[in-house]
Amino acid sequence: xxxxxxxxxxxxxxxxxxxxxxxxxxxxxxxxxxxxxxxxxxxxxxxxxxxxxxxxxxxxxxxxxxxxxxxxxxxxxxxxxxxxxxxxxxxxxxxxxxxxxxxxxxxxxxxxxxxxxxxxxxxxxxxxxxxxxxxxxxxxxxxxxxxxxxxxxxxxxxxxxxxxxxxxxxxxxxxxxxxxxxxxxxxxxxxxxxxxxxxxxxxxxxxxxxxxxxxxxxxxxxxxxxxxxxxxxxxxxxxxxxxxxxxxxxxxxxxxxxxxxxxxxxxxxxxxxxxxxxxxxxxxxxxxxxxxx
DNA sequence: CAGTACGCCTGGTAGC
DNA sequence: TGCTACCAGGCGTACT
Length: 293
What we know:
Elements: H1 4-18, E1 23-28, E2 34-35, E3 46-52, E4 55-60, E5 64-69, E6 74-79, E7 91-92, E8 104-105, E9 110-116, E10 121-126, E11 132-137, H2 145-148, H3 161-169, H4 175-180, H5 190-199, H6 213-232, E12 276-280, E13 283-287
Parallel strand pairs: 2-11
Antiparallel strand pairs: 1-9, 3-4, 4-5, 5-11, 6-10, 7-8, 9-10, 12-13
Helix pairs in contact: 1-6, 5-6
The protein binds a DNA duplex through residues 1, 54, 69, 71-73, 100, 109, 126-131, 171, 173, 180, 182, 189-190, 240, 282-284.
């Protein structure tokens, strides 16, 4: 499930591939996933691709933008096809990660297709159909609740120990739920919340207000560290993860999971602990009972 | 206002 | 083997 590192990986790939391209036609195959009208963006050129939390923002040169939230199983895959004969020609991608319904495009789960004027295409696939794409006027981005409800970006200056002390002191919720609350900080999801808490040696279920300032600073550093590492490895694709980058390739951070999906395995600290799996707020929670107190 | 339950979805899997 | 039941999971919404 794309979190900040996966969404950033896609952003970088998209920026490299589609900046400057003109959208010729948008095929909406599942109406509920596209909010707006194709005609609002057809004919416009891509100026830039930005990210806020888990949302990618494609800026166009006609005063509009496309907001994309991949939720659990959304994928954006770009296919260069300068010599295509028909828009429906299948593009085989030579790798083992399927696109929900096969490894050719369009796949069964392809719900939106952006056709660019040079013949290249961008496929939006989403098996569980929770994601969305919205057309939003650039001038409205500032007061769009999808964006302005979000807490600080973990890589921003304002993401300080003092800020975390402030929000933690106000709640007795398990610290893991606070990390995953997009209004408290943007972009952290289940994978990186679990791994950051292990990195900082914190029990995921401890009430946030019980953390002392030293521990909070360690947690802040751990959050930044695992997110940076996730980006460095191009996101994570393992077990349930349907993530692929814009070239259709998986990430590699799953090879470096600290605790996520490692239940039953030995703690990487070799402290004799075995990773346990529980549920917090209905979500899989992984931790080492030995070093996370 | 905060906390909780539910709904949205489908593919994979466990159980029969 | 084929069927059904259940689960994962981000996040908006309705309800307590």
